[in-house]
Amino acid sequence: MPQLNPTPWFLTMLASWITYALIIQPKILAFITPNPPSNKTTVTPSTTPWTWPWT
């Protein structure tokens, strides 16, 4: 079963993970969001209970 032989694919997997860890990941982590979340207080709406006609 040749698909169980890791020799041809191990170096490809290793190179892709090294590329991800050393090149792509720092660029993604350095990204700053253009609209940072603000510390607004949440406003709870005032609600009135529903009056059911059959009660």
From TrEMBL:
GO CC annotation, single: proton-transporting ATP synthase complex
Keyword Transmembrane helix: yes
Keyword Nucleotide-binding: no
Topology in the lipid bilayer: Single-pass membrane protein
Biological process, per Gene Ontology: proton motive force-driven ATP synthesis
Record keywords, A-Z: ATP synthesis, CF(0), Hydrogen ion transport, Ion transport, Membrane, Mitochondrion, Transmembrane, Transmembrane helix, Transport
Residues annotated as transmembrane: 6-24
Annotated compartments: Mitochondrion membrane
Pfam families named among the record's database cross-references: ATP-synt_8
GO molecular function: proton transmembrane transporter activity
Family (UniProt): Belongs to the ATPase protein 8 family.
UniProt xrefs under PANTHER family: ATP SYNTHASE PROTEIN 8 (PTHR39937:SF1)
Record-given protein name: ATP synthase complex subunit 8
